[in-house]
């Protein structure tokens, strides 16, 4: 919807911003050992800066991270000379408390204190179990040779499992509203509406109750489940002989191609919007579902965790379609302009 050239660093920064730091035990150790004054630690820009440094160190060494001094000088007049420019952990710094709603580690225990293949029935293990089940069921639902009744049931169970996983993650990270009145609910939803878990929760609700069965809609579900499962396996089973023999290559490939999977999911999500428009001309049409799904696409276009990928796909669509419309169907310019005003409103 606007011409812009692809910037590899922009996609890398988007991948760093959407990375699930809460479920990575290395981030807790890293952040708790960063030496930084309390008045700067409360700034979201400073936290984002160290998240990018963590992502560069452990995930993507090619990510370019600007210095903290340059960032703070452009956003605040307070000096940042007391902030540590190095991401090297300092052993004598007390760890900061984690966000409310997340599972706390026992005092004196570190994530690597037990055997490398031991499982603790904590939030991460529950998420792994649910997402592994979702991945298996979604593969059953998308495979073409599976009997129709079984495939249809697996299709709906995949959305139900992902919706439950997203809802559980939202509750673990953000808790529940402080009160059950309109102002408290508005504040609560404003804090979660742009998160990836909330977006996938609404995405699943829009398909699990629909009579229309679009197996194409399982692609984002598969990508999300695969990403969560591989991250858990790499953290907890890296020393297992079975993992090293059969799963390590796949997990390494997935971790190094997170951006590719996110772009694939964005393409599938936008393609589903056009499929729902085409379904309006069939007996399975659902006007309310189509309208609500395009509202969700608007949210994906604006939310920071998905905006870069969706905007990139829309730019490519615009570069392909606009010349054809100008040449063969100029009468569509007026309705397209109205649609764009609604989209950006």
UniProtKB/TrEMBL annotation:
Bilayer disposition of the protein: Multi-pass membrane protein
Location of this chain's protein in the cell: Membrane
Highest taxon of the lineage: Eukaryota
Bias kind Low complexity: ranges: 72-89, 101-118
Swiss-Prot/TrEMBL GO biological process terms: endoplasmic reticulum tubular network organization; membrane organization
Region (Disordered): 69-119
Stretches of the chain forming a coiled coil according to its record: none
GO cellular component term, pick one: membrane
Keywords: Membrane, Transmembrane, Transmembrane helix
Residue stretches spanning the membrane: 132-150, 157-174, 198-226, 270-288
Main localization (coarse): membrane
Family: Belongs to the PER33/POM33 family.
Name of the protein this chain belongs to: Transmembrane protein 33 homolog
Organism expressing this protein natively: Cannabis sativa
Source organism phylogeny: Eukaryota, Viridiplantae, Streptophyta, Embryophyta, Tracheophyta
């Amino acid at each position: 919807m606007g011409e812009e050239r692809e910037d590899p660093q922009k996609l890398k920064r988007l991948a760093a911003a959407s990375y699930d730091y809460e479920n990575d035990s290395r981030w807790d150790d890293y952040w708790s050992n960063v030496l930084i004054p309390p008045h700067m630690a409360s700034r979201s820009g400073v936290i984002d800066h160290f998240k990018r440094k963590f992502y560069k160190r452990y995930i993507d060494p090619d990510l370019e991270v600007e210095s903290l001094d340059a960032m703070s000088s452009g956003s605040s007049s307070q000096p940042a000379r007391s902030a540590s420019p190095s991401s090297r952990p300092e052993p004598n710094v007390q760890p900061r408390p984690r966000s409310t709603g997340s599972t706390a580690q026992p005092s004196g225990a570190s994530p690597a204190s037990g055997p490398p293949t031991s499982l603790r029935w904590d939030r991460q293990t529950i998420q792994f179990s649910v997402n592994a089940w979702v991945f298996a069921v979604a593969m059953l639902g998308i495979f073409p040779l599976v009997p129709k009744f079984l495939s249809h049931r697996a299709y709906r169970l995949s959305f139900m499992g992902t919706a439950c996983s997203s809802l559980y993650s939202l509750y673990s990270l953000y808790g529940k509203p402080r009160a059950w009145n309109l102002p408290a609910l508005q504040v609560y939803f404003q804090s979660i509406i742009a998160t990836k878990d909330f977006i996938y929760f609404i995405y699943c609700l829009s398909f699990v109750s629909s009579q229309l069965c679009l197996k194409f809609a399982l692609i984002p579900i598969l990508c999300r489940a695969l990403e969560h499962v591989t991250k858990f396996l790499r953290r907890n089973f890296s020393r297992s002989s079975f993992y090293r023999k059969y799963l390590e290559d796949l997990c390494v490939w997935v971790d190094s191609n997170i951006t590719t999977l996110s772009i694939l999911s964005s393409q599938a999500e936008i393609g589903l919007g056009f499929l729902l428009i085409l379904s309006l001309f069939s007996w399975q049409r659902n006007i309310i579902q189509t309208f609500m799904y395009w509202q969700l696409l608007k949210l994906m276009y604006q939310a920071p965790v998905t905006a870069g990928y969706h905007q990139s796909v829309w730019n490519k669509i615009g570069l392909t379609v606009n010349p054809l419309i100008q040449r063969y169907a100029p009468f569509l310019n007026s309705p397209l302009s109205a649609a764009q005003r609604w989209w950006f409103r």
